[in-house]
Design brief:
- The chain is mostly helical and 286 residues long.
- Helix content is 70%, strand content 1%.
- Helix 7 packs antiparallel against helix 9, helix 9 crosses helix 10 and helix 11 runs antiparallel to helix 12.
- The structure holds geranylgeranyl diphosphate (GRG).
- The site of geranylgeranyl diphosphate has 17 residues, from helix 4, helix 8, helix 9 and helix 10.
Length: 286
């Protein structure tokens, strides 16, 4: 299967799982289910759950064996986007070219839809324990990891720092640190999830964590460049590309992707899909 087909195939099984899991729009209270589905099926690339599935495959597992946990992480990602767009946080009227959740459903419902997706994300991770070959202990470990990677020391903390950051006074070191928390943490979690549920040892987990951190950082720098190239730059924000320009952002993201692939050395060619995913990030247009 070529890589484009691989991505398409994985996206389809992720979409199907999410559709089967989420309450139908008409189920009462209908407005919240509509709002949840609006953002979950709003055109996301599903890159985080694809990382989870590809990591499980690296260990010779079927993607299906970690599918629910992977989709749980996608729901948590969707929650973070809805809250990120709220007037009191980033105040963005559009997401993926469409009106953001609060623009369609109002602020109160958007806030609650985000909350509901966060809760559902954990529920789906727990539901992954119904898969026979998955150890209950590894699900517990993943729940603990998820709380850590999205909590105040990571994603949530990164968002707090993002609110406080001003273009003029943030150093490169602080900006990179903020990106590690705000964006790389959840991406890193999605990779560790596939590894933990597949019984990775400490050495393997360490290598994949390094991969995840470099990928995650590159992902945010590439995102900043895309904002500029697609004329969606927000000058209020201290972004890598705003501060250091496209040329440096491009070479830094390429360096990080190179480092990410290097950290997969111990897996030999078994890591080819993860390497292709890393390269794909450099070419993505959205
Ligand atoms: C309460 C845990 C908690 C978090 C709330 C709002 C928030 C704190 C964190 C948000 C962090 C955030 C929005 C980071 C941006 C990451 C990013 C680059 C998102 C875009 O990811 P893509 O391109 O999105 O994968 P798609 O559209 O493909 O789904």
């Amino acid at each position: 299967m070529n890589f484009k087909k691989y991505l398409e195939n994985k996206k389809n099984i992720i979409d199907k799982t999410l559709d089967e899991y989420l309450p139908p729009e008409e189920k009462a209270p209908s407005i919240i289910h509509k709002a949840m589905r609006y953002s979950v099926f709003g055109g996301g690339k599903r890159i985080r759950p694809i990382f989870t599935l590809a990591t499980a495959e690296l260990f010779g597992r079927e993607a299906e064996s970690v599918l629910r946990a992977a989709c749980g992480i996608e729901l948590i990602h969707t929650f973070s986007l809805i809250h990120d767009d709220l007037p009191s946080i980033d105040n963005d009227d559009f997401r993926r070219g469409k009106p953001s959740n609060h623009k369609v459903f109002g602020e109160a419902i958007a806030l609650l839809a985000g909350d509901a997706l966060l809760i559902s994300g954990f529920d789906l991770i727990i539901k992954n324990s119904e898969v026979k070959e998955i150890k209950k202990q590894s699900i517990l470990k993943l729940i603990k990891e998820t709380s850590f990677y999205i909590g105040t020391e990571n994603m949530l903390g990164g968002q707090v720092e993002d609110i406080a950051a001003k273009n003029e006074d943030i150093t490169k070191e602080d900006l990179v640190n903020l990106y590690m928390k705000k964006t790389a943490a959840l991406i890193c979690l999605s990779i560790r999830a596939g590894a933990i549920l597949s019984g990775a040892n400490q050495r393997q987990l360490k290598a994949l964590t390094k991969y995840g951190e470099n990928i995650g950082l590159a992902f945010q720098i590439i995102d900043d460049m895309l904002d500029i190239m697609q004329d969606q730059r927000d000058m209020r924000k201290p972004t890598y590309a705003n501060k250091y320009g496209i040329k440096e952002s491009k070479s830094e993201s390429e360096r990080l992707i190179g480092e990410a692939k290097d950290s997969l050395r111990i897996f030999n060619q078994k890591a080819d899909t993860l390497k292709s995913l890393a390269d794909y990030l450099l070419t993505r247009k959205k």
